[in-house]
Amino acid sequence: MNELFRQHCEACRADAPKVSDSELAELMHQIPDWQPVTENGVLQLKREFKFKNFKQAMAFSNRLADLAEAEGHHPAILTEWGKVTVNWWSHSIKGLHRNDFIMAAKTDALLEA
Questions:
Q1: pLDDT digits (tens, 9 = 90+) for 24-40
Q2: What's the sign of the alpha-carbon dihedral 49, 53, 58, 60?
Q3: Could you give the CA distance from residue 77 to residue 70 in angstroms, rounded to a whole number?
Q4: Across all residues in the chain, what is the average pLDDT?
Q5: d(C-alpha 13, C-alpha 11), whole Å
C-alpha cells in the first residue's frame, strides 16, 4: 500500500486548487496503472479493470460504490462483461485534486479485498 491509500478525502470547494503539473507527475508514480486523460475538456484519471465475468465485475463495482459513499467522493463507473472502467476527477473544480489520487489508490486496493 502506498501513502495515498492511507489518506482520506477532504471537502473540495469550487475554489480548491487543481494539482499542478509537478504534483501530477509525482502523484502518478504512486498509481502507475492509471492514465491521465482529458474527456470533455476535463483532466481525469482513468483505469480499466479486467475480470473473468460479469458477476466479478459487478461485485467490484459495488465495493467501489461503497468506498465512494464512505469517502464522499464519487467516480464515473462503467461496468461491462468482464470489465470495469473507472474515471476519477473532482467535479467542483473540473479537474484533478489530490482527492482523486487518494481514491485511485483506494480503488486499486479493492482488488485485494
A1: 999 999 999 999 999 99
A2: negative
A3: 16
A4: 92
A5: 6
Residue 55 phi, psi (nearest 5): -60, -45
| Helices of type H across the chain | 21-28, 54-71, 98-109
Does the reported pTM lie above 0.90? yes
Question: Cβ distance 12 to 91 under 8 Å?
Answer: no
Q: Which domains does the chain possess? A: 21-112 (3.30.1360.20)
Residue 46: helix, strand or coil by DSSP?
strand
Going by pLDDT thresholds of 50, 70 and 90, the confidence category of residue 11 is low
Long-range residue pairs from 88-94, CB within 8 A, at least 24 positions apart, any chain? 88/44, 88/45, 89/42, 89/43, 89/44, 89/45, 90/12, 90/16, 90/18, 92/12, 92/13, 92/14, 92/16, 93/12, 93/14, 93/16, 93/17, 93/18, 94/41, 94/42
